[in-house]
Design a protein that fits this description.
This protein has about 200 residues and is of the alpha+beta class. The protein has one domain (about 5-195): Oxidoreductase, molybdopterin-binding domain (Sulfite Oxidase, Chain A, domain 2), CATH 3.90.420.10. The protein has 5 helices and 12 strands. The strands form 3 sheets. Strands 4-3-12-7-8 form a 5-stranded mixed beta sheet. Strands 5, 6, 9, 10 and 11 form a 5-stranded antiparallel beta sheet that branches. A two-stranded parallel ribbon has the order 1-2. The chain is globular, with a radius of gyration of 18 Å. The N and C termini lie far apart (about 70 Å).
């Protein structure tokens, strides 16, 4: 069969999805049922671009996953995906701006960083900085007390009204609209406070 230009254009997305889908292992279910778990096993197209930047976890077991809020806090937290969804109550349309030149306004839903830190017993006045880290350990981002106090900065669980896709950082990612998208850490599993 001769591969013409039209056939090639039709096959590229299917091949890309097959390759991406085959390279991911997301295991486990939560008590919230299959919606969250099925989101983690499906590689689907999204309405804004994806840039990997080397941050590719090989495995996230939802039974073991915890978002830790620790460091110089009085009440360290270890939060499951269900815990995070129970706290998630903020929806904001915020712009993600990429160093590659694209930008997108996206409806994000999640938990303000300030709320998470307050639950752990920290305040912007008590900290010098906060480090946000991925399950991969990738490029931990440092937030200032002003960043923490900014109500737009959150740990997002949903984008566009649905749980984050694998490509966009399932199960949780940093949203920080004053910063470039490369700093919006995906697959967040640790937030560490350091006192002044």
């Amino acid at each position: 069969m001769k591969l013409n230009r039209r056939l090639f254009i039709k096959l590229v997305p299917a091949l890309a999805l097959a390759v991406a889908g085959g390279s991911w292992w997301f295991l486990g279910r939560t008590t919230r049922g299959p919606n969250i778990a099925s989101q983690a096993t499906t590689s689907i197209a999204s309405d804004f671009p994806v840039t990997w930047n080397g941050d590719l976890p090989t495995k996230i077991d939802l039974n073991d996953y915890r978002l830790r809020v620790d460091g110089d806090v009085s009440k360290p937290l270890q939060l499951t995906v269900d815990d995070l969804y129970a706290m998630s109550d903020v929806q904001k349309t915020l712009k993600i701006q990429c160093v590659e030149g694209w930008a997108a306004d996206v409806l994000w839903e999640g938990i303000p960083i300030l709320y998470l830190l307050s639950r752990a017993g920290a305040t912007p006045k008590s900290i010098d900085h906060v480090t946000v880290q991925s399950v991969t350990g990738y490029n931990a981002i440092v937030l200032t007390p002003d960043d923490v106090a900014n109500s737009d900065n959150m740990i997002a669980l949903k984008a566009g009204g649905i749980p984050l896709t694998i490509e966009h950082g399932f199960p949780a990612r940093l949203v920080a609209p004053a910063r470039l998208g490369v700093e919006w850490i995906k697959y967040v599993n640790r937030i560490t406070c350091t006192n002044k």
